[in-house]
Amino acid sequence: MTPAAAARAIADAPMEQLGFATLDHQRALRTGVPEVVFGPGKTTSDLVAIASRLYARNGLVLVTRASPEGSEALLRAFPHARRYERSGIVVLRRRRLRLRGRVLVVCAGTSDLPVAEEAAVTAETLGSRVEQVSDVGVAGLHRLLAHRARLRDARVVVVVAGLEGALPSVVGGLVDRPVIAVPTSVGYGAHFGGLAPLLAMLNSCAPGITVVNVNNGFGAGYAAHLVNVGGRAPARRKPKG
Amino acid sequence: MTPAAAARAIADAPMEQLGFATLDHQRALRTGVPEVVFGPGKTTSDLVAIASRLYARNGLVLVTRASPEGSEALLRAFPHARRYERSGIVVLRRRRLRLRGRVLVVCAGTSDLPVAEEAAVTAETLGSRVEQVSDVGVAGLHRLLAHRARLRDARVVVVVAGLEGALPSVVGGLVDRPVIAVPTSVGYGAHFGGLAPLLAMLNSCAPGITVVNVNNGFGAGYAAHLVNVGGRAPARRKPKG
Amino acid sequence: MTPAAAARAIADAPMEQLGFATLDHQRALRTGVPEVVFGPGKTTSDLVAIASRLYARNGLVLVTRASPEGSEALLRAFPHARRYERSGIVVLRRRRLRLRGRVLVVCAGTSDLPVAEEAAVTAETLGSRVEQVSDVGVAGLHRLLAHRARLRDARVVVVVAGLEGALPSVVGGLVDRPVIAVPTSVGYGAHFGGLAPLLAMLNSCAPGITVVNVNNGFGAGYAAHLVNVGGRAPARRKPKG
Amino acid sequence: MTPAAAARAIADAPMEQLGFATLDHQRALRTGVPEVVFGPGKTTSDLVAIASRLYARNGLVLVTRASPEGSEALLRAFPHARRYERSGIVVLRRRRLRLRGRVLVVCAGTSDLPVAEEAAVTAETLGSRVEQVSDVGVAGLHRLLAHRARLRDARVVVVVAGLEGALPSVVGGLVDRPVIAVPTSVGYGAHFGGLAPLLAMLNSCAPGITVVNVNNGFGAGYAAHLVNVGGRAPARRKPKG
Amino acid sequence: MTPAAAARAIADAPMEQLGFATLDHQRALRTGVPEVVFGPGKTTSDLVAIASRLYARNGLVLVTRASPEGSEALLRAFPHARRYERSGIVVLRRRRLRLRGRVLVVCAGTSDLPVAEEAAVTAETLGSRVEQVSDVGVAGLHRLLAHRARLRDARVVVVVAGLEGALPSVVGGLVDRPVIAVPTSVGYGAHFGGLAPLLAMLNSCAPGITVVNVNNGFGAGYAAHLVNVGGRAPARRKPKG
Amino acid sequence: MTPAAAARAIADAPMEQLGFATLDHQRALRTGVPEVVFGPGKTTSDLVAIASRLYARNGLVLVTRASPEGSEALLRAFPHARRYERSGIVVLRRRRLRLRGRVLVVCAGTSDLPVAEEAAVTAETLGSRVEQVSDVGVAGLHRLLAHRARLRDARVVVVVAGLEGALPSVVGGLVDRPVIAVPTSVGYGAHFGGLAPLLAMLNSCAPGITVVNVNNGFGAGYAAHLVNVGGRAPARRKPKG
Amino acid sequence: MTPAAAARAIADAPMEQLGFATLDHQRALRTGVPEVVFGPGKTTSDLVAIASRLYARNGLVLVTRASPEGSEALLRAFPHARRYERSGIVVLRRRRLRLRGRVLVVCAGTSDLPVAEEAAVTAETLGSRVEQVSDVGVAGLHRLLAHRARLRDARVVVVVAGLEGALPSVVGGLVDRPVIAVPTSVGYGAHFGGLAPLLAMLNSCAPGITVVNVNNGFGAGYAAHLVNVGGRAPARRKPKG
Amino acid sequence: MTPAAAARAIADAPMEQLGFATLDHQRALRTGVPEVVFGPGKTTSDLVAIASRLYARNGLVLVTRASPEGSEALLRAFPHARRYERSGIVVLRRRRLRLRGRVLVVCAGTSDLPVAEEAAVTAETLGSRVEQVSDVGVAGLHRLLAHRARLRDARVVVVVAGLEGALPSVVGGLVDRPVIAVPTSVGYGAHFGGLAPLLAMLNSCAPGITVVNVNNGFGAGYAAHLVNVGGRAPARRKPKG
After folding, report:
1. Tens of pLDDT along C142-161?
2. Cα–Cα distance for residue pair B106/B126, rounded to 1 Å
3. How many CB pairs under 8 A join D and E?
4. Model pTM?
């Protein structure tokens, strides 16, 4: 394909103007996953309108961090939608995907569960088989070692941790799989809202660890899904039918 | 496997005491890749001693950021070693691996080349097929669009950028593959040694992007290799022979 | 003009003491635009009193970030005033200006709209013709490329973006006009309330980009107007009549 | 023009592969100014090679922050090139442009002169008429007031200041022209390498001030030129002949 | 006086244990001013109890940043106390002092008035004659120049400013008196709650400027009083009678 | 003990899965103190369930920073539990320990009392004899010197201070015992929520001072107890009976 | 005096253009002290030229932080000049002033001596009588208490401290005089080049402390002189004769 | 003891004026350990003079971070002094102490050895028995588990780590002894010279961990010694004989 052809493919891509938003319907073709809706800063009616258009087109809508009002409005408009309580994620889909591979989501403490849930629901919604291991922080190593077989069987491991963010380094030393680290804002004082574990994870002594933004369970689940299915998401081909 | 069995496997692992260092020979078994040597802060004689022991055991040694004296000493001791000039990485290996898959390393400017080289050499040394695209920053988009076919063919894309670090977001919007972003320290003033692109990459509007530390080409190449080969590194099984 | 004459011109300038405020009525003469009122931290009665004096003198009042109570009081006192809902800006003017030139205000996401509106209303109130393009973030480049003709026709482009703040660099690579970049606080975690896009914009690889404070749509609209009309604001000469 | 046509125009743009660099020859067409070369991090031979290709194509080369070795090599290769001592900028051009408009570059102290020179040389090289006023910091206001006529005659004012960076606010209160503020790293202690004046300028109480990165005289001069000539640079049309 | 005698004087100093507080009654002897009460974090009953004991002993109580409940309780317990509305400072004193010298408190904008009031009330309560000049920010220099005679007549000038904090530098260039600069938290975005003007004031190009913490009107008024009266506070000798 | 035996001991350790939590019952054996419950981010029912299980197993539960609802639920479920009002710590224990040694908790101001209480209650609950000295900040040295005998008699001193955090340095110069410094968030402006005293304490000129996180009274009390009893906590052996 | 007259006085003030510098000869009239020369960033010939002009006009020149080459050139040009070794300050004066009042400069450690010397020499050069007390950090309080009589006799105290910067708080609690605190860069790690003591001093619990920039002995000495002589500097009237 | 008696004891304490230094000879009486000399910023002759006086008085001198010239001068002046190469610490002592207790110094990587040595030498010089375990970072847990018996036998554990600083949390979960964590500056990029592990250690999920400044092996060794010997240092009583 020549550059001109590539550029043409980009420029002729379908999009839809809603006035307050420009929906990128070509995204699913281009990247394998339809546009995801970031809840904060959108009115209730905006949310429902955007979700309706995306659902009609792709059969799959993921809304992250929906406010209580926003998710109630979505549930009224789409009675078959599902809201996950800890993380506030809302999922609409026309049909369930056949789950593939194996993503393991590990978290250090119970306070990290909302972020872990966001990661797990995202990866599963996109078509990955997901398992979770919770509350296995490094101050009690045997809790993690007890799950060593599950660590070994995953294709990719998402590790969610607040406080000092040490868990990804320990996990990274145990497995031969990609590890995606998610710092959380769980902590206080010199934690600076997640800066402490973020810096820790970026400086990990275990090689091969990559990091996402503080509390970005969605981003970690999305990346983990891409790794798990070998890049190309089945979600792209399935829900179109 | 019970927790006790898992823990036993860990604790009985072979290691070697050099006095100033504790070599983790079991690492290759556990994670698929032997220990890598971080050059800074090690004396010339330490470097050669460590490299000798690791080479004898694993047939593969990777030394990153070797000083000129350090790499000269390594090249004298191991005449078949190879030093890469831009990045200062030194590689010793008993046999070449058959390269698999496809990792694409993209960089925004020519000043980012040392970091891009570190990523490319790391991934290739571990057994991945690697291609590079250079100097395609976002201020001249057509330079990137010209390589769209190569972007599509890679299993994972490493994107290296300094200054504002915008390139990973643009690449992430074009491909359906995992994107690993590497901020570099190329910049000045309010760049704060790489903080600016690091924050940009962590806040990317394109989902699925994961990030490594500033200038950490090694970490990005390592992670990209794990993603490329589906987790388990062939390096583990090959060089043992 | 000698320094002494210049200084005399400054020192004899008209001002008006309100006790809690010192109104700079000479400002319109000196800079072409009357004083603008920053809403936060002023009581309702202060706001109305200041607006009354400025209106009487200049025929044009711009109040930014008015609180709900503040803008209601202004609307009661000046029934012909107009409040813009997203940005909270309130405008009073005796007569409409004939709009000149062309300012284009581009924003990356729907959450950036309040800041974009503040920029657009400011520039238009001062006498510039303004157009807006919304929700064209860099993760879907075709949405921006579709507006290339409008980019080319503007005399100055204001680019509003949160998250990683990459959009100004891409726009700056496409046009031969001054680009004014506005970072927004849209984001979370390592976004640090707009620090991430602020740093990105200050380090842009596209030359000619200048930057204003986080969420400072007013400042960007004001500067864009000055650029658009060749410096001197028509607002100065018109509303005096 | 349709999006597809726009994208085609982008993708068919001429570029030139030098292996270590991808020259964007279309840049002059697209933005009115050819690519500018950032000196740091490039080898002497790279610099000369890049400058040769750009010169052959555009007849105009601007190299910023060239090292002593780099600029000597450039001067050997291009005997008619000119190096400016304070700022280290090197200029090659086939023919002098006819200078237009008026850009005023003001600096607060003698230590800010290198940055002021970079701004002035950049704007003049691109085709703007430039004047300079130096050492007029706010602790001795009469030094600035003595130049009030020149402030009034400029189409755009670049204000360069280190320490507390107060000068742009004072200038912004005196003129009805766009003011571009450049913080410098002149200072110590809690100056943090230019952070103090950068923050001051971003928070200026005088509206219409836009800001560039610390010590970025080049960026300020480039933006000032675009404003001065009404956006489109004459440099684009002239040196092609 | 020998060290031992000095230490004895310290150690035998009177203090009073309230259980939750250790009142330093010797402070007035040692430093010329009785202990001042910082309101935040103290319960209503604590506030009243502490004020009662200090009043009985020193005849002078200053409570800063009292909460609405706290100051109401104080006003009920001490009907002759006075609360200043903008700053929340509460003053109890047995007798008015004869005011001495002259402290000038200048502020840049109306939003800085609460901090300016805290400074003015503190200095006056301790026995200084105080004048105020308000809303004379540097974007309209003539407003400040109109007060030049008052600047010249003061023994010490307190300058309160938010946003970029440029006013102290301009004042410092006009007077031959000590200037005490107070940054305020008035601003947004890259203001970081007062960090921007704090850094600006610490880096002022006008010599002789000293700085206090953000919003610390009390500290500035206290220091200004000490400077104004030549160090030793008359408050110490007067209210004892 | 061989590594394998050590690892077995770790891996066979008892733990209890509550679904949302993994209780580390072996902790008391391993470290001498049972798991402590960090209140924030846990639901009321979670808190009660976790406390019940830990109490049944260890006879000692410490819940820090319980919300009002959380501590009420705990008090309903365990009528003999005790809640400390200032710090919000809740303690359940089957039997009182015989207190040993001597820990002195010193605080600089009354606003630091909540953190000092958290430290004192923690150390006492674990089995240390604790004394407190309050409101002895460095601006009135004689208040501290009056307690010099108690400083000398303690085995370890916890020093709690906000504002500039100078007290640990002064105490550290007076005693020959370990000093544990706790910065608090008491302050404003350039205090940055405790960063100022944290940095001060880390840079203390008095040797032997160690530091915990901002407001971390619990951590300081825990460490002080370990030092006081010579490492091994009696709590471990007592409540098992 | 009317505003117009004030402005005229400013604008007619004498100044001298050196091309690279604009000397503010009116400064001595306006503020009581002639311009001071900040050494860094000026060439040797610039330094000598500026010093010559200032000396001819005012009979007093103070150059701070002169480089070794710069101060040698000054000493060659002005054989009667004096260079102070620790601080690098160079002083030229036509006649010695009669010293007045009393400034006490206290420093915490021997490493702080260069900054203390800069403060002491500045104040003395301007006409203040200065005493120094050195190496009396808070970890050994008796060293400071031994000098209590000198603390009491000073009109103003400059306190210089690195590390945690606690000394000003202790001094401020002992005296009834203005205290000017100077943080130094003496420290390492989490000292961040003086940030730790700077923050500590800004947050001091002792009221009346004002602060200057890190290592700014000059500014502290200048301000102390103004306080010591009651504002107006004798230096202004003396050396003119 | 009354406060007055306590204060007298402080004020009559012996000290020695060296002009540039005030030696605190009473320190050994007051705190059990003589003054320690911080090498940086002291001239060679200062170092020797201070060491001579301290040695004569206390029979024990510890100089940290001596420059090569400084330590050579010390070794010439005191031929029996000992210099430790990695850390640059120099020790002079009249007689060896009988070592007591057991301090364990653990470090994560070979690059952390200089800091670990500083801690070990400090504690041993003061009279503690010290053991070291090196290069046992968390990415290879079995290396640490192999030393579990030694961890259990120590009275206090010093843990030195750079990069992400995770090791103290893992050690803290394994032992029932006080753990003193030392972050090091080993790392790059978003490590910020040790900030990353410093924050991690302050936020550790393992209770009882206290922290010292970056690279402050001396402080950690000093504190560990105080803990190890139960507070009072034998060094105080021994070397006086």
Report:
1. 889 889 889 988 999 999 99
2. 19
3. 117
4. 0.92
G174 at interface of D, judged by CB pairs closer than 8 A: no
Residue range E151-187, pLDDT digits in tens: 989 999 999 999 999 999 999 998 889 999 999 999 9
Cα(first)–Cα(last) distance of chain F, in Å?
A: 28
DSSP secondary structure, chain A, as one string:
--HHHHHHHHHT---EE-SS-EE-TTHHHHHSS---EE-TT--HHHHHHHHHHHHHHHSEEEEES--HHHHHHHHHH-TT-EE-TTT--EEEESSPPPPEEEEEEEESSGGGHHHHHHHHHHHHHHTEEEEEE-S--GGGHHHHHTTHHHHHH-SEEEEEE-TT--HHHHHHTT-SS-EEEEE-----STTGGGHHHHHHHHT-SSTTEEE--TT-HHHHHHHHHHHHTTSS-HHHHSTT-
Average pLDDT for F95-112: 91
**In angstroms, rounded to a whole number, what is the distance separating the alpha carbons of residues A121 and A114?**
11
Size of interface A-F (CB pairs under 8 A): 61
Using alpha carbons only, give the angle E217, E218, E221 rounded to the nearest 5 degrees: 85
How far apart, in whole angstroms, are the C-alpha atoms of residue A145 and residue H170?
13
What lies within 8 Å, CB to CB, of F190 at 6+ separation is E194, E195, E198, E213, E214, F196, G199, G202, G203
Could you tell me which chains touch chain E, where touching means 3 or more CB pairs under 8 A?
A: C, D, F, G, H
- Tell me which residue in H32, H177, H219 faces F176 most closely, judged by beta carbons: H32
What residues contact A28, with CB distance under 8 A and at least 6 apart?
A: A34, A58, A236, A240
pLDDT tens digit string along D177-233?
A: 999 999 999 999 999 999 999 999 999 999 989 999 999 999 999 999 999 988 544
Q: ipTM score of the complex? A: 0.90
Q: pLDDT tens across H182-211, in order?
A: 999 999 999 999 999 999 999 999 998 999
Give the CA angle between residues A39, A43, A46 to the nearest 5°: 85
Burial of E150: CB neighbours in 10 Å, binned 0-12, 13-18, 19+: middle
Cα A118 from Cα A221, distance rounded (Å): 7
Query: Could you tell me the CA-to-CA distances from D100 to D127, D235, G29 in Å, in that order?
Result: 6, 11, 42
Question: What integer pLDDT is reported at residue G117 of this predicted model?
Answer: 97
Cα dihedral A127, A129, A132, A138 sign: negative
d(CA A101, CA E179): 69
Q: Residue G180 is encoded by which pair of tokens?
A: 């000017």
Query: Any residues with CB less than 8 A from the CB of E212 and at least 6 apart, and which?
Result: E180, E181, E182, E219, E220, E223, G202, G209, G210, G211
G56: how many CB neighbours lie within 10 A of its CB? 12
Query: How is residue H231 annotated by DSSP?
Result: S
User: Residue D176, Cα to own-chain centre: how many angstroms?
Assistant: 22
Residues within 8 A of G (CB atoms), E 12-31 only: 27, 30-31
What are the angstrom distances between the C-alpha of E165 and each of A67, C138, C166, E109, E185? 39, 36, 30, 11, 10
Nearest-by-Cβ selection for D176 from C32, C36, C220: C32
Lowest mean pLDDT among B180-194, C93-107, H213-227: C93-107
- Strand-pair category, B37-38 with D156-161: unpaired
Touching check for G136 and chain F: CB below 8 Å? no
Please name the residues in contact with F196: beta carbons below 8 A apart, sequence gap of 6 or more: F163, F164, F165, F183, F187, F190, G199, G200, G202, G203
G192 reaches D (C-beta below 8 A) = no
Question: Taking CB atoms and an 8 Å cutoff, what residues of chain B touch C166?
Answer: 138, 164, 166, 169-170, 200, 204-205
The nearest alpha carbon in chain A to D6 belongs to A11
Q: What share of chain C is helix, strand, coil (3-state, %, to 5)?
A: 45, 20, 40
* Cα A31 to Cα B174: distance, rounded to the nearest angstrom: 6
